[in-house]
Amino acid sequence: MITLTDFLFISAGLFCTGIFIVLSKRNAIQILIGIELIINAAILNLVAFGKYDKLNNAGQSFALFAIVLAAAAVSVALAIILNVYRQYKTIDPNKVERLKG
Amino acid sequence: MNIEHILFYVMGFIAVASALVVAASKNLVRSLFMFFVTLFALAGLYVFALADFVAITQIVIYVGGVLVLMLFAFMLSGKEVLNNLQQRNSRFISLSKVPAILVALLFAIVLYNAITKAQPNDLPWIKASAQSGNVIKPADNTINNIGVNLMTRYLLPFEAVSVLLMMTLIGAAHLARKEEHKII
């Protein structure tokens, strides 16, 4: 029997890796990958707890919602990254310092 | 230690290890493809949590949609980004990464303590649902129940997500279009 604790430890590892990627990378796309890792760690927790809710299926339903929201966020973020690249010719967040192009 | 445990730990190890490779690699394309591996391993973990529909959705949306979108963004943002990245120093631990490692380790310690102290297997509601048979069994068909619940109990969040999806569709198309004249 696989217990809840195993799932929680794996998701904690993914979360910490995601935090590290977000804080250390100098490329907007890689930072986006880190954010996706954090979201996936949260979804793994939702799914693992959703096993104990057969009637309402709350965990799995909200895991689906979270996946859809993450996909929507990625599409908007990539559009913004493309615009930033067009303006600044770089996607390093440290070098983008003016709000008004 | 049966085959189920071994497969579960192999999947978990692949997920965390490929995430670490994503963190360690300098090459953007390599980290993108290792992220691909992470997503597949996570889909396998969802199957072990008896959520097969979520696993299929993960593969279709993340691997089919999000990753292809990221590859497109990478290709459109030119190759000087890649050259820039490869010229960096090749040491894994440089001074600028120390704060990030510190914060990640602190989060790891906090999460480890929280998980071991909370003891999620002994939570009251989990014990109650295990006693009343409210646990998903491996032979159960959950997709039927998910569909019924999405249309009845979770109708409001479902509609909110659909409206938000349409908003992001319009917003992304508006942001990514070629501008004829600068508005700024």
How would you describe this structure to a colleague?
The complex is a heterodimer of chains A (101) and B (184). Chain A has helices spanning 4-24, 28-50, 58-88. Chain A is elongated and about 50 Å long. The longest helix of chain A has 31 residues, at 58-88. In chain A, helix 2 (28-50) runs antiparallel to helix 3. Chain A contains three helices and no strands. The termini of chain A are far apart. By secondary structure, chain B is mainly α. Chain B folds into two domains: 1-96, Four Helix Bundle (Hemerythrin (Met), subunit A) (Up-down Bundle), CATH 1.20.120; 135-184. In chain B, 74% of the residues lie in helices and 0% in strands. Chain B has helices at 3-24, 28-48, 52-76, 80-86, 98-118, 124-131, 142-151, 155-176. The longest helix of chain B is centred in the middle third of the chain and has 25 residues, at 52-76. The mean pLDDT of chain B is 85.
- Which value, in Å, is the CA radius of gyration of chain A? 17 Å
Question: Structural class from helices and strands of chain B?
Answer: mainly alpha
Strand content of chain A: under 5%
Main sheet characteristics of chain A: none
Measured between the Cα atoms of the first and last residue of chain B, the distance is: 63 Å
List the chains of the largest interface with their residue counts: A-B, 74 and 89 residues
Summarize this entry quickly.
The complex is a heterodimer of chains A (about 100) and B (about 180). Chain A has 3 helices and no strands. With about 100 residues, chain A is mostly helical.
